[in-house]
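Read as amino acids, tokens; as here:

___
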Amino acid sequence: MNLILGFGETGASFVRFLETRGLPYLIMDSRLNPPGLSHFETLSEKDHFLGGFNKNVLNDIKRVLVSPGIDFNNEVLVRARKLGIQISTDIEIFIEQTNTRKILITGTNGKSTVVSMAGHLLQNIYGEDKVVCSGNIGKPVLDTISLGNSISIIELSSFNIEHSKLLSSDISVLLNIDQDHLDRHLSLEKYSQIKKAILKKTKRGLIGPGSFKSQLLKEENNYDIEALLKPFEKDLSSLINQDWPFHELINIKAAIAIYIAMEDLNGKLNLNNIKKIDESLIRESIYHFNSFKRMKHRYEIIGIRDGVTFINDSKSTNISSLEVALNSAQRQHGKKKVLLICGGDSKGQDFSKISEKTLESIKHLFVFGKDKQIIMNELKNRAECSLTKDLQEAFNLAWSKSLKGEAILLSPACASTDMFSNYKQRGEEFRSLSGFN
């Protein structure tokens, strides 16, 4: 018997996977009515253990299928480990059961963007039906097993990696590491260890900027993304303009580095002799970005009114992504020209860690949400700050204080679930308030 621990999109994909193979299962979730459960009419009441966790169920269980949202120290998982019961993730099952080339991508920021960029690039080069993007970006990996594609690009969060032991891949990409999910992982060191695990069993490891990379680059088959693309910096920089903020350059480099690594695996070039890469290959990659549509809610310049630029960066859920957004806004608008709206569930982050250089971009900061007082206390002596009731009040105050040439930036640096269903709903409200629906 299989036990599905935690429902939602991943739990639903476990159900579909098991049912197509005629395998029995039970579902356990702490919620009485987890989202998506009602779509499975074949489930009977005896298949459900809802409203709490019951480790006694494990007496008849051979395997636990765990959803990423379940805490690593959940009592059922702790008991299962003691009993020697197999614990599997959807990512592990996918890796075991498919012969596709597997590209795993993680990082504190930019995961979804790089997955979508790499998907766009490789689909244009190898064929649209050959490349499928899945994982944390939206489509559950188990729902892609029978699609017949030859390349799978999978976005992984720290939650996915923490539960998985068998993460072998053809290419693994670690974009960056910074404060995030410390409410679950408790320390940056632990969070960092989890992220780095993606590189343990890969044929080609690609590593983005950060102090963490020096040790990793000593390992065989790990490569520095910046170093790989340095000979082509001039060509790549030509992409950065009004539509492409400066911070997207590293994401573009990561996507192109994935293509180069794929060609290395195909025997068409050698990553260890980067100077011999044909420059036309890079130019071909850059050409394909002309048709790429940037993802919504990620430093999305949604319009300009009365000389004020409105930027929707609702996907910003940690301090690192906020700093990236502020630095790009400062490059475009200058110092003290950004009216920043931030706040929500801070997930245990320390906002005092934001650098002075980054804060130079802020004219005024408007804070809302669950942890607004915490954020206010950590920043009030370093920037002009105002506490606000909600996003609407924050926006109205920002608009009233804005002048021509400035920018109103929503970059919350926090989870949205204290006041919104998700970051998308938060971003759509900002768009509506801005008048650019």
Observations:
- Residues 248-265 form the longest helix (18 residues).
